[in-house]
Amino acid sequence: MIVEEEEQETLGHHALLELYSCTPSQLNDSGFLERLLLNVASQLKCTVLGQRFHTFEPVGVSGIVLLAESHLSIHTWPEHGYAAVDLFTCGDPQHLSSMPALFQNKLQSSHHDFQIIKRGQPNKASDVGFERVRDRRLADSIELDKPGLNRKKTWLSDGWSENILWSARIKKVIAEEHTCYQDVLILDTHQLGRVLVLDGNIQCSEADEKSYHEMMVHTLMCRAGASNTPKKVLVIGGGDGGCARELLRYPYVTKVDMVDIDRELVELCEKHLPKIFRRPDNQSSLRDDKRFNLIIDDGAEYLKTCEDYYDAIFVDATDPIGPGASLYSHEFYRSTKSRLNPNGALAVQGGSTWYFRDTFRQVYQNLQALFPVVHPLECFSAVYPGGVWSIQIATMGDDPRDVNDKLSRLHDDLDWYSSERHQAAFILPPHAQELLY
Ligand code: SAM
């Protein structure tokens, strides 16, 4: 085997294999050769995109397997017992040395020649046309067409639509579990801190979660209509703990019931997301606050049998697919209303006014059919599709856009919520306003 001695950066590796004295009948069997190449591609950890094999008259086969990393091909001369194989890959070359053995055994070749040639020096290649991802090797490792963790677990991608894929570079996989309800990933990333991913959808990141949780909780809690300061509150979903943390800031809140369907998920968040699943005043777990009460149940089922009344209810649910689907129905919103005190209010996650316009409209219409007053607000998110997310607030009559200055000033030290932001967040652009009619 010839390997270039000088260690230099390279864009790809070309492995050339000459196999002599092979069994002629196998060299003429295109089905056999196709299975062989596909198996070798998989053993070498390559990603197969397609294949084409052709048998010549009177003998000989030419075949190619297209790889995400480039290609693996074979050309055979059964009359000479000879096959020429080549693999070009821009991926990890560490498995290439096993290539001769994978072919030799199957084709019973008596001897072979093998060489690996380095192809392409980045310092000679131009980077024109690759403005946003300048390092081509980074671009390769993103696997731009697939949501989820890439093969090397260095990038996470989230599909924002059929045509838009958002990606973040990962430092470390902290937890990868399949609970009874959902696939859970907790990852440490380079720019967003730890992130929580459920069924492939990013739920929150340490870096930006406060925007969503502060705006969801404090706009409802500091609205002028919440004059009888809310004491008993309910969070449905919210397993990451961000909503409950914000609610525990209020000294007059006596009880925070949090109903999440997935015990394992909540335990994973408590263990691996301590910056979110914590009491507001220190790093200890939410569970150390006696006012916090975790209930493991489906939110919709819980409300059917619940006998308590709440001053405020927050629905911090996953998207309307999977376990979260039951938390978007007309029936469910009716149940929430039935458990609210006379001046109570409800806040629900309302989707995107750009990417999920139907969800936004449907949530609004369901709430409007039941509650005298409904107003959506928009908040920043670094990880939700489009970077802007909506929360919809429904009340028994008061206007949630009116802020109680005295209450909101108690929260001068927050990162995202303020008295001014309270009012500004309800000002929707016309393209979102039109969804309300
Ligand atoms: N802020 C996030 C968002 O808007 O995408 C939601 C975050 S939170 C992690 C979502 C929570 O809803 C999860 O903890 C999940 O277990 C919980 N959940 C999903 N379906 C549920 C249901 N039917 N009843 C109660 N909790 C549910």
How would you describe this structure to a colleague?
With 437 residues, the chain is an alpha+beta fold. The chain folds into two domains: 12-138, 4-Layer Sandwich (S-adenosylmethionine decarboxylase); 209-436, Rossmann fold (3-Layer(aba) Sandwich). 24% of the residues lie in helices and 32% in strands. A hairpin with a 4-residue loop joins strand 9 and strand 10. The chain starts with 11 loop residues before the first strand and ends with a helix. Mean pLDDT is 90; it is low at 1-7 and 125-137.
Strand order of the largest sheet: 15-14-13-16-17-19-18
Largest sheet: 7 strands, mixed
Helix content: 10-25%
CATH architecture group name of the largest domain: 3-Layer(aba) Sandwich
Give the distance, in angstroms, between the N- and C-terminal Cα atoms: 72 Å
| Average pLDDT level | 90
Assembly status: single chain
What structural class is derived from the secondary structure elements? alpha+beta
Please, how many helices?
13
Find the CATH topology of the largest domain.
Rossmann fold
CATH class of the largest domain: Alpha Beta
Rounded to an integer in angstroms, the radius of gyration calculated over CA atoms is 29 Å
Basic shape? elongated
Tally of structural domains: 2
